[in-house]
Write a structure and sequence with these properties.
- This protein has about 325 residues and is mainly alpha-helical.
- The chain has three domains: about 80 residues, Leucine-rich Repeat Variant; about 80 residues, Leucine-rich Repeat Variant (Alpha Horseshoe); about 80 residues, no CATH class.
- The protein has 21 helices and no strands.
- Helix 7 runs antiparallel to helix 8 and helix 8 runs parallel beside helix 10.
- The longest helix has 17 residues.
């Protein structure tokens, strides 16, 4: 019971970080890396970073035991201390952690520490699927004084730093990295890659154009269509290539069914901001229906309008709204 009370007190009170730092209370400061208040977290990390190498062992231990906020705080503190004992654990997190935030923070910390041992891992991270991890790795490599050895490595560095215009003069060497980035998870990154390929003065492989034309984002597909001349793709092939894209248009039947059963959710499914407001009105009506004095009155109304039990909207009205949602979805652009 006492431990529970202490835990509650720990979360409710705002600790005196400066006093803990003056007392050199490394254990308590390390625990504060998991405090629910973000301000407390980063101030504790900042304080630990000023305590020097004495705090390193506690922080390395925190990398193993703490949750996401605690790990991030420990990494920030280690970046401030710059002790080389943290290099290998941070490399491990960069290469293996499941959270992109941890990988990103680890890359930045490795750059701050400045040990060349991290160069190989950071160079590999330039091809990480996450754009934040790529960016952090490129920044860290610059801090380490790393210079790309090949035009392909230079391309990956520029992609990571989002310096797209500087990629164009690299010519054919940039095609390989860009052909991978046109499949990136981020639509904005894919757009920049497609646009870069459009302005390059070298032919683009047709399979790369095929990937661009199949993009799930409508804006990216249009940009790919404009860039397709670089691929020397025959014009009659373009509609066929576009037909292979991932379909993202909302299902009209799903929108209609949702609106029939739960008025407003069909609109919400279609991305209409006012759909949730309609649903709120529907739920309020449903709540009124459950009140006993109104229940008898509603029952007679339901019998008159062929109402489905449990749905406080007459069937003809539900059908009208269902058809309306279905029609909106059907008219949405699909290209």
């Amino acid at each position: 019971m006492e431990s529970v009370c202490e835990l509650l007190q720990f979360h409710k009170t705002r600790p005196d970080i400066e006093r803990l730092r003056e007392r050199n209370d490394i254990g308590q400061l390390t625990r504060l890396l998991q405090h629910p208040d973000f301000t407390v977290q980063w101030k504790a990390a900042e304080a630990l970073g000023t305590l020097g190498t004495e705090a390193v062992d506690h922080l390395l231990h925190a990398l193993l035991e703490h949750d996401l906020p605690g790990k991030l705080g420990a990494i920030e503190a280690l970046a401030g201390i710059k002790d080389k004992r943290a290099v290998r654990p941070l490399i491990y997190l960069l290469e293996n952690d499941a959270h992109s935030e941890i990988q990103w923070a680890s890359a930045l910390a490795l750059g701050e520490i400045g040990d060349p041992l991290a160069t190989s891992s950071l160079r590999n991270a330039l091809m990480n699927p996450d754009k934040y991890v790529r960016f952090g790795s490129a920044v860290a490599l610059r801090q380490l004084g790393w210079q790309p050895e090949t035009p392909e490595e230079k391309t990956w560095q520029l992609i990571a730093l989002h310096e797209w215009k500087d990629i164009i003069p690299l010519g054919t060497a940039a095609i390989g990295p860009l052909s991978r980035v046109v499949k990136d998870t981020d639509p904005d990154v894919r757009y920049e890659a497609i646009e870069t390929l459009e302005h390059m003065h070298v032919p683009v492989p047709q399979d790369v154009c095929g990937s661009m034309l199949r993009d799930s984002n409508a804006k990216n597909r249009w940009k790919a269509l404009i860039a397709a001349k670089k691929c020397r793709v025959p014009v009659p092939y373009l509609p066929w290539a576009l037909s292979k894209r991932t379909r993202v248009r909302k299902n009209p039947w799903a929108a209609g069914l949702l609106n029939f059963l739960f008025l407003g959710l069909g609109y919400n499914y279609l991305g209409k901001w006012w759909g949730f407001l309609v649903f709120q009105v529907y739920m309020t009506t449903l709540l009124m229906f459950t009140l006993f004095p109104l229940k008898i009155i509603w029952t007679y109304i339901f019998l008159i309008f062929l109402q489905v039990p449990g749905i406080p909207i007459p069937i003809p009205v539900s059908v009208i709204f269902a058809v309306h949602a279905w029609d909106i979805a059907r008219k949405m652009p699909d290209l």
